[in-house]
Structure formats: structure tokens, C-alpha cells
Amino acid sequence: MNNLISWSDFEKVDLRAGTIVQVEDFEKARRPAWILYVDLGSELGIKKSSAQIKHHYAKEDLLNSQVMCVVNFPAKQIANIKSEILVTGFPDQDGNIILARPDKPVPNGAKLF
């Protein structure tokens, strides 16, 4: 491994669990995407993100499910929305994203260690 980081580098990335509370079509996205509203607890509130995950997830699959999010990137303008967080996932064999999620419920806003 060439790109070793220090523990303090890892601590800079703020990864939190949140619950998807609303899902909207993102019609202006270049590739099929949802607009997700993720409840990250009382400290951070509800944040919005664009997610190109339509290949594996319908709206009803996403509502009330938990996801892992990077919450300390600057907001990014994507078409007509400002994406405030990065919802994380892994590519499958075809490059379509599978969400990274806790395997048991955790409090919204819980930090990944």
C-alpha cells in the first residue's frame, strides 16, 4: 500500500449514520439519480444529497433505511440542487452503487469509529 494515512488523517473524515426520510426524483441529473433527505440527528439535522443509486434502489427501498454519510465535505452544486453530504457505497461488478449501511439500527448522527 502506497497511500498510508495517519490516524489524525482518518479523524478528519466525519462519517455519520442517518435515516433517509424523503426521496425525490432528480430529473435534472445527467445520470439517473435520487435526491435523498437524510436525518442525521439533532446536531446536524436533515441534509440533502444526490445519489446515483436508481439501478439497485426504488424509493420504497430507501425510505426509513439507514446509510453512512460523509458530513464534512463542502456542499457541491449538482444541476439544480446543492448536495450537502456524500452518501457512501461500493460499486458492484458493473459499477452500480450498493449503499454502505449499518447492519443494525444505530442512532441518527452516530459517528463511525
What is the topological layout?
Layout: H1 7-12, E1 15-25, E2 34-39, H2 41-44, E3 46-51, H3 59-62, E4 66-70, E5 76-78, E6 81-83, E7 86-87, E8 89-91, E9 97-99
Antiparallel strand pairs: 1-2, 1-4, 2-3, 4-7, 5-6, 8-9
Tags for this model:
113 residues, mainly beta, five-stranded antiparallel β-sheet, two-stranded antiparallel sheet
Describe the 3D structure.
The protein is mainly β. It is built from 3 helices and 9 strands, in the order αββαβαββββββ. The chain has helices at residues 7-12, 41-44, 59-62; strands at 15-25, 34-39, 46-51, 66-70, 76-78, 81-83, 86-87, 89-91, 97-99. The protein has a 5-stranded antiparallel sheet with strand order 3-2-1-4-7. Strands 5-6 form a two-stranded antiparallel sheet. A two-stranded antiparallel ribbon has the order 8-9. A hairpin with a 2-residue loop joins strand 5 and strand 6 (81-83). The chain is globular and about 40 Å long. It starts with 6 loop residues before the first helix and ends in a 14-residue tail after the last strand. 24% of the residues are buried. The mean pLDDT is 95.
